[in-house]
């Protein structure tokens, strides 16, 4: 009977400690961290000469359809400038990419974020190892 009561008391204490203990159920190793969140974000791609030049040509051709004399020249230049900007933004959108961002809680109490191109194998609460700018299971 005493053993049963002792086992019940230990189980109750362990349950209470786990409920109050926060995120860490076991101490973290020196290179370990606990995942706080994982989510996908979209990063804008790179603009470049192709988008700028292509947009400028199209914008210049459209601008050339308006005005007379100096006004036509001004409309052409304005159209080319606006088209170059728009073409660059379109190229950034076309080359955008999705990245997975993992936020981890380090043993020293700090928080770090890591990005990768593919969905990670871990989820919130998983303990991972930190190797410089990368993490692994």
Characterise this structure.
- The structure is a single chain.
- With 137 residues, this protein is an alpha+beta fold.
- The chain has two domains: 57 residues, OB fold (Dihydrolipoamide Acetyltransferase, E2P); 46 residues, no CATH class.
- It is 43% helix and 26% strand.
- It is built from three helices and five strands; from the N terminus they run H-E-H-H-E-E-E-E.
- A hairpin with a 2-residue loop joins strand 4 and strand 5.
- The longest helix is centred in the middle third of the chain and has 25 residues.
**What's the average pLDDT?**
80
Proportion of beta-strand residues? 25-35%
What's the shape?
rod-shaped
Radius of gyration: 29 Å
Helix content: 40-55%
**Within the CATH hierarchy, at the fold level, what is the topology of the largest domain?**
OB fold (Dihydrolipoamide Acetyltransferase, E2P)
Strand order of the largest sheet: 3-2-1-4-5
Distance between the termini: 44 Å
Number of DSSP E strands: 5
Count structural domains.
Answer: 2
CATH architecture of the largest domain: Beta Barrel
Low-confidence stretches: 4-9, 11-24
**The first-level CATH class name of the largest domain:** Mainly Beta
**Count of helical segments?**
3
Class derived from helix and strand content: alpha+beta
Helix and strand pattern: HEHHEEEE
Largest sheet descriptor: 5 strands, antiparallel
